[in-house]
Amino acid sequence: MIIIVQHKVRDYDTWKSAFDAHEDIRRRHGATGHELYRGADDANEITVVGHFPSKEQAEAFAADPSLKERWSKAA
């Protein structure tokens, strides 16, 4: 199962630091990897492609309360 998230962040470096610190939460939900892309015209436009073994694990990750909390501070 793949989750694709696109959004604009205020500062890529700040966002990336928070993203990296959230690795344990992704793994706890079964994430097996991800790709991270930045916009060609705006490096603060990002796309994250997350990989999960199942739809249920991907949905559990997307519903994790820490996700919203972390990104509201970092984005």
Structure write-up:
The chain has 75 residues and is of the alpha+beta class. Helices cover 47% and strands 27% of the residues. It contains four helices and three strands, in the order E-H-H-E-E-H-H. The longest helix is centred in the first third of the chain and has 10 residues, at 12-21.
Provide the fold topology.
Blueprint: E1 2-8, H1 12-21, H2 23-28, E2 33-38, E3 45-51, H3 55-63, H4 65-74
Antiparallel strand pairs: 1-3, 2-3
Features of this protein?
globular, 75 residues, 3-stranded antiparallel beta sheet, 4 helices, alpha+beta, 3 strands
Strand order of the largest sheet: 1-3-2
The share of residues in helices is 40-55%
Order of helices and strands: EHHEEHH
What's the helix count?
Answer: 4
Regarding quaternary structure, how should these chains be classified?
A: single chain
> Terminal Cα separation, in Å?
25 Å
Mass-distribution shape: globular
In percent terms, what proportion of residues is strand? Answer: 25-35%
Can you give the mean pLDDT?
92
Low-confidence stretches: none
Radius of gyration: 12 Å
Largest sheet: number of strands, sense, barrel closure: 3 strands, antiparallel
What is the β-strand count? 3
Offer a concise description of the structure.
By secondary structure, the chain is of the alpha+beta class. Helix content is 47%, strand content 27%. The chain contains four helices and three strands, in the order E-H-H-E-E-H-H.
